[in-house]
Amino acid sequence: MAIEDVTTRLRNPEAAQTVIAILQQRFADKVQTGEAFRAQHAHTTTYLPAQLPDAVFFAESAEDVKAVVKACAAHKVPVIPFGTGSSLEGQVNAPEGGISIDFSRMNRVLAVNAEDLDCTVEPGITREELNAYLRDTGLFFPIDPGANASIGGMASTRASGTNAVRYGTMKDVVLAVTAVTADGEEITTASRARKSSAGYDLTRLFVGAEGTLGVITSVTLKLAGIPEKIAGGVSSFATLEDACNAVIMTIQMGIPVARIELLDALQVKACNAYSGLDFPETPLLLLEFHGSEQAVAMQSEQFAEIAAECGGSEFVWTANAEERNRLWKARHNAYWAGRALKPDYEGFSTDVCVPISRLADCVRETQADIAAEGILAPVVGHAGDGNFHLLVLFDKDKPGEIEKIEAFTVRLAERAIAMGGTSTGEHGVGQGKKRVVGKELGSAVAMMRAIKQALDPDNIFNPGKIF
Amino acid sequence: MAIEDVTTRLRNPEAAQTVIAILQQRFADKVQTGEAFRAQHAHTTTYLPAQLPDAVFFAESAEDVKAVVKACAAHKVPVIPFGTGSSLEGQVNAPEGGISIDFSRMNRVLAVNAEDLDCTVEPGITREELNAYLRDTGLFFPIDPGANASIGGMASTRASGTNAVRYGTMKDVVLAVTAVTADGEEITTASRARKSSAGYDLTRLFVGAEGTLGVITSVTLKLAGIPEKIAGGVSSFATLEDACNAVIMTIQMGIPVARIELLDALQVKACNAYSGLDFPETPLLLLEFHGSEQAVAMQSEQFAEIAAECGGSEFVWTANAEERNRLWKARHNAYWAGRALKPDYEGFSTDVCVPISRLADCVRETQADIAAEGILAPVVGHAGDGNFHLLVLFDKDKPGEIEKIEAFTVRLAERAIAMGGTSTGEHGVGQGKKRVVGKELGSAVAMMRAIKQALDPDNIFNPGKIF
After folding, report:
1. SS3 of B353, please?
2. With an 8 Å Cβ cutoff, is A171 touching chain B?
3. Phi and psi torsions of B78, nearest 5°
4. Domains and CATH numbers, chain A
């Protein structure tokens, strides 16, 4: 991991030290300045260099967060919220230094309202911790981005994942947040009501703001009932078009599929090699259905007919958990299988999202670009949403390699935008997609900037992200 | 309808005349200043007095809207977007005069992407016009607020209605909008992708902003597949608690009910009298299920078991359209049945929304308040969301009556807020709920004001609403 010296970028190098001294006096060892702590709280998941904060603050309460924000606001020092560090576009980097607020100690469940299918949690709780807590209630938190991310981080990057096609994204499941704003006070964006027309949708403004408008201190979430049965299955297709047609028909018919994942031929090849599988090395769809025994059987049979109509292989499905895990093994190990294609290379993940009618086109044109550039990048897609990921494998020591893949990701984003899609379906802008967000949204970015300026005039909240 | 003279409130009485002259020169009779036009474009649906705009502009294109906004911005004259005028909290009133932009001529469907289940429309199209247009595609626009409202108006008030429990609200189905901002230019808030993490959620910021941040010029909507079958049924319950328990169990079990409506005893009585029905005059639930023949039968049977368990009457259901309409007659005629309780009174509709665990409490306490005050106000609820409406019947000529019902609606909102709910589930703030939005959201309102100030510094967009 390359560490970039950010001291020259600090707006006021002494200010951070002043804030650290103030916080140390009041909070003692909740404040850590050792390089190991700071390096751990910088960006570590891609080719972007790590930019370390000046200190890490381990918050234990909303009062702690208010104190940090007040001290930072008084001295115009950046505040960078940190969940688990699993964001993928440099969201936790500190390009201008500042205080990283670590939320791992703010991981309590504050309330579960089982009758209302909602709960309120502190932002540092991870989705797996939350689901372990909920197990006895018959409810679960359905959003699954892969990583065991924190709820605050997932809200801030508008995360989603494999089952968004059924359960939505963080924009759909967050009912309200509390957040500390630039004046160091806490606001509550909404009530626990399922719906409201009471003024501007501040909840949705914080969801996806990547910590640039304030620091989230609690999140109220919709929950779902744990399905009585889960069925899963797989079907291979000769072409991307065939696979995507099956996805389109599934969505059009309103089959409430819980997951519908696409692996391209290279990813299938990688999975076969890594997990000892023997799928045809052509596009593969993996599906999951949630519901009563009768419902998942009905849905699986409906999809089997669609697969047959679209020229897919026989749809092999099961409601037996062990069998299902075996069928889904290719998807579960996709990341490590991809990495194993070139064990000595680095890998980073990028995503775009297009209307599903363009998914096959976008993947195919991207594969052609990959081939032309001599890049290795298997594709895994949340096909029901038109969202797909590339695991780009690269040799970080080879001159020109970073520039090549950066140019490739810009072309990828431009291709998605030209097809009516977005430069990022679920990873966010962070630092990595700043160069393309203007291509996608044009002058709407000026409106975002005006909001940022109005709510955070000194730009203390996670500077250098989105804009 | 009382018409309030607003001339004394104008910030600059000559400015509006200047703008009208500019627009008349360029647009001739797209500009109308006659009192009949102006009165028709003021608020007409409640006890709030009508406040007329200075002129009505019949926009035919986004270019027209840009021209009006530019002229108004240059002279700091208010701009009030007008769809069909069916909003319920005074959203289209012109308390400071200004130009009402009528969207009835901007009612084209700009694109339908059937494979992607989306379409883009001009804001003036009504939901019934859109559904008539879509009929041959096998798709429909599912949000149904009762009135044949315009899509732009529905987006602006974050409308929902009877089937929000299944299909969501406008916040869930709007993929993107284009809007003319205070500089007279048009922005696009998002792409057609199903999901995106590209920066702030400006789409959701415009949805529910009631025209206070800009003027929507097109809306891109998610559509749903027309269900193969629709089943409907009814069940009576001895108490509100029993009925609400049945609702809670239905939601908890994840039965994908399309509509689940609650009528209180007074509303049932009104419906019996109005439509010649003979339901027991106790709380009534009406349900609708959408899906395959097999699915709606399964869901109806599941609900029948729940109703039995909660002490409801036998759940009578059918998948025959004529029979279903007969069963649902009470709901379809609920408004006019309510009005018929006191044909010589005025009626206005108010709504709140609470977590469903508190729905029975909130309705019961509200009924007690109604009884104590001697008000007549039947209840109809979108029970699956915890949202309910009161049709408040009042004698507008009786001294003190308006003050009494205003105080009653404030208590209603406070009651909902105290139960973890919202002062308005779907009607919006407009003028009518301004007095309670601060009670609900506290200092979050200051953040809304800061956004308003940043995006519309001269307060030209629908002034006097929300704040």
Report:
1. strand
2. yes
3. -60, 150
4. 3-104 (3.30.43.10), 109-225 (3.30.465.10), 229-335 (3.30.70.3450), 343-449 (3.30.70.2740)
Side-chain half-sphere exposure of B449, counting CA atoms within 13 A: 11
| Closest by Cβ to A191, choosing from B169, B224, B420 | B420
Enumerate residues 430 to 459 of chain B having a beta carbon within 8 A of any beta carbon in chain A: 433, 437, 440-448, 450-451, 453-455
Question: Residues 342..371 of A with a Cβ closer than 8 Å to B: which?
Answer: 353-357
In sequence order, the β-bridge partners of residue B215 are: B180
For residue A274, give how far its alpha carbon lies from the nearest alpha carbon of chain B (Å).
Answer: 31
Model ipTM value: 0.97
**CA dist., res. A230 & res. A199, Å (int):** 39
Closest Cα in chain A to B436: A198
B295 CB within 8 Å of a chain A CB: yes
Furthest C-alpha separation in chain A = 70
Give the dihedral of Cα atoms B356, B358, B362, B365; nearest 10 deg: 150
- What residues 5-64 of chain A have any CB closer than 8 A to a CB of chain B? none
Partners of B298 on chain A (C-beta within 8 Å) are 292, 294-295
The Cβ of residue B5 has, within 10 Å, a number of other Cβ atoms equal to: 9
Q: Give the CA radius of gyration of chain A.
A: 22
Nearest to A209 among B200, B213, B292 (CB): B200
pLDDT tens per residue, chain B (467 residues)?
577 766 656 667 899 999 999 999 999 999 999 999 999 999 778 888 999 999 999 999 999 999 999 999 999 999 999 999 999 999 999 999 999 999 999 999 999 999 999 999 999 999 999 999 999 999 999 999 999 999 999 999 999 999 999 999 999 999 999 999 999 999 999 999 999 999 999 999 999 999 999 999 999 999 999 999 999 999 999 999 999 999 999 998 889 999 999 999 999 999 999 999 999 999 999 999 999 998 899 999 999 999 999 999 999 999 999 999 999 999 999 999 999 999 999 999 999 999 999 999 999 999 999 999 999 999 999 999 999 999 999 998 999 999 999 999 999 999 999 999 999 999 999 999 999 999 999 999 999 999 999 999 999 999 999 99
The partner residue sitting opposite A450, judged by closest CB among B157, B194, B455, is B455
Tokens for A257? 């599929």
B196 and A450: CB-CB below 8 Å?
no
* Contacts B414 to A, Cβ<8 Å: none
> Between A and B, how many CB-CB pairs are < 8 A?
276
Phi then psi dihedrals of residue A353, to 5 deg:
-145, 130
The answer to whether A460 touches A182, Cβ cutoff 8 Å, is yes
3-state secondary structure B405-422: HHHHHHHHHHHHHHCCCE
Nearest to B195 among A138, A353, A455 (CB): A353
Residue pair B313/A155 in contact (Cβ under 8 Å)? The answer is no
Side-chain half-sphere CA neighbours of A200 within 13 A: 26
Two tokens, residue B341: 């309780």
Residue A35 C-alpha, separation from nearest chain B C-alpha, in angstroms: 31
Distances (CA, A) of B338 to B267, B389, B393, B412, B466: 7, 12, 8, 19, 29
The tokens of A245 are what? 């047609």
- Is A198 an interface residue toward B (CB < 8 Å)? yes
Cβ-count burial of B286 within 10 angstroms (0-12 exposed, 13-18 middle, 19+ buried)? buried
Inspect the interface and report whether the beta carbons of A353 and B196 lie closer than 8 Å: yes
Per-residue burial over B290-325, b if 16 or more Cβ lie within 10 Å, else e, is bbbeebbbbbbebbbebbeebbbbebebbbeeeebe
Is B200 in contact with A190 (Cβ distance < 8 A)? no
For chain B, say whether A132 makes contact (Cβ under 8 Å). no
B248 inside 8 A of chain A by CB: yes
